Amino acid sequence: MDTLVVTKKGGRWRKFKKSIPFYLMGLPAMIYIIINNYMPLYGLQIAFKDYRVIDGITGSTWCGLKNFEFLFASDAWRITRNTVGYQFTWLILNTIISVFLAIFLNEVIGRRAKKFFQSLIMLPYLISFVILAYVVFVFLSDTGILNTFLGLFGIDKISWYTEPKYWPIILTIVNSWKSVGFNTIIYLSTLVGFGKEYYEAAELDGAGKWKQVTKITIPMLKPTIIMMVTLGMGMIFRSDYSLFYQVTRNSGMLYEVTDTIDTYVFRALTSGTNMGMSSAAAFYQSIVCFVMVMIFNAIVRKISREDAIF
Amino acid sequence: MTLLKKKNRFVLLSYIILTLVAIAIIVPFWILFAASFTDESWAVNHGFSLIPGKWSTLAYQYVLSRWETFGKAYLITICVTVCGVILCLVVTAPCAYMLSKKDLFGRRVISFLLIFTMLFNGGMIASYVNYTQIFHLKNSYLAYIIPNLVTSAYTIMLVRSYFQSSIPDELYESARIDGASEFGCFIRIAIPLAKPILATIALMQGIAYWNDWQNGTYYISDYGKWGIMNVLNSINNSASYLSTLTTQSEGVPTTTMRLAIAVIGILPLICIYPLFQKYFVKGITMGAIKG
């Protein structure tokens, strides 16, 4: 009995000693992760404090849930509705568009043409939202293309950046334009792996192309679609604030339909007003996000273990 | 016969739709480009159009005349991108190699520490307070590089899976018999064989650094230290910054000048992209498969 324990202990010690060179290799990254990801967790308490820069985190006085009260009284509903509303709609819409684009892209026969469309479709994904804001500006400014175009039909100029009602559509178009390509490539790479024999068999049975798409392609894509959508659902509480901030040019008149949790926090940070309150908003987001990711990851695990994040 | 016809019809439909999509992607780029070459006063009176009503290179001339401002911003962004990408690889690859060792002592704990960062984070404000109050990154060039260094622990996991799946253990064993150290194995065997994934990561990271405007906005308040995206961001969103650029002379082509800088801001990406396109596709699909 005793000897068994000793050898076991010795084995662990040897394993540890053998691991030391590897620890040294991993050290820089681990230090970085601690600095970048773990140390800020200490700052989460700002959400519960009457934070003043001079006093620092530790020196500021506790204020309980006061920061959250403000948030829930006025803005929480608006920013939550905008965040979840947009993210949910876009998740569904972009999935549909990109599945179909992938199917069409798979039909392209020439290698050159295929490569051309593939490269082009991803190009928007590379572009910074800062630049995209300029592109949108050329379309929507008072002297923009859209107003010039409307002028041809004798319609008066629209001041786009002050009219909230158009923005849900504008943001949707901009978002799809930028992000559809990425998903298309993912679905395409799944499609390419499918065997030709199913389609050949279907053709022999006289199934048309459309029938092949609905009866073979989409059912075979289903696992990937479910996975992508489920993972997307976990992220539904996070919005890309670059999009909401840059493309709307941070126009205050549009906040009703363009303010999300992320832009709310970002504005508070850059304007320096009420850090406690925006920290409360960030805390609220982190918690909800964590719960959502856990739930949907558990669902993904149920469907297919390999595709889960952990 | 009719079946063949039907099939061809579907292929034709695919081509038509993809062509429309291609147009929808190219047109906005073209419009930005065309608008930047439009004469300023013509644009104010008649608006922008697909083909400039009156061509002018005044905007670009102005940008060149203020090259000490824009050129510096450009140079900063280039340096940040290059340094950031190199540093990212230097930090990511060895850590991924460590995690790829199945008999590493404490592997599960270390993996958990990494994965947890993907699930929960302190948010922007906590990060900001951390970097400014403890590490004093405010107005330091490091603020461009450090906060984005490993955009997600996911990158490390991606490289780790590559090491695990595409490099057989026998290679290491034979090297060890030849007297190579663990570090020697990493440098001489793992790195050369992992080139495709490292190129992918470098490209993704490079794009992230090139496009980043957030860190500059948080941490850099000194105009002289701004990268090109921050200059663009401020021209777009802050009238006071715009006035610092344009006070000296009257008749500056304010609108078209911005567009000219935007065009200069995307040019490098559009030039580099075709060369690295295949790595990019690879990166996306690899991410999806292991996602």
UniProtKB/TrEMBL annotation, chain A:
The keyword Cell membrane applies. The chain crosses the membrane at residues 20-39, 88-109, 121-146, 166-195, 216-237, 281-300. Its main location: membrane. InterPro entries: ABC_transporter_permease (IPR051393), MetI-like (IPR000515), MetI-like_sf (IPR035906). One of its GO terms (cellular component) is plasma membrane. It comes from the Bacteria. It is found in: Cell membrane. The keyword Transport applies. It is a multi-pass membrane protein. It holds the Pfam family BPD_transp_1. One of its GO terms (biological process) is transmembrane transport. Residues 80-296 form the ABC transmembrane type-1 domain. CDD domains: TM_PBP2. Keywords: Cell membrane, Membrane, Transmembrane, Transmembrane helix, Transport. Belongs to the binding-protein-dependent transport system permease family. This is Putative aldouronate transport system permease protein. It comes from Catenibacillus scindens.
Automatic annotation (TrEMBL), chain B:
GO terms for cellular component: plasma membrane. It comes from the Bacteria. The keyword Isomerase does not apply. Keywords: Cell membrane, Membrane, Transmembrane, Transmembrane helix, Transport. It is a multi-pass membrane protein. CDD domains: TM_PBP2 (cd06261). InterPro entries: MetI-like, MetI-like_sf. The keyword Lyase does not apply. Residues 74-276 form the ABC transmembrane type-1 domain. The chain crosses the membrane at residues 12-33, 73-97, 109-129, 141-163, 183-210, 257-276. GO terms for biological process: transmembrane transport. Its main location: membrane. It holds the Pfam family BPD_transp_1. Gene3D superfamilies: MetI-like. It is found in: Cell membrane. Belongs to the binding-protein-dependent transport system permease family. This is Putative aldouronate transport system permease protein. It comes from Catenibacillus scindens.
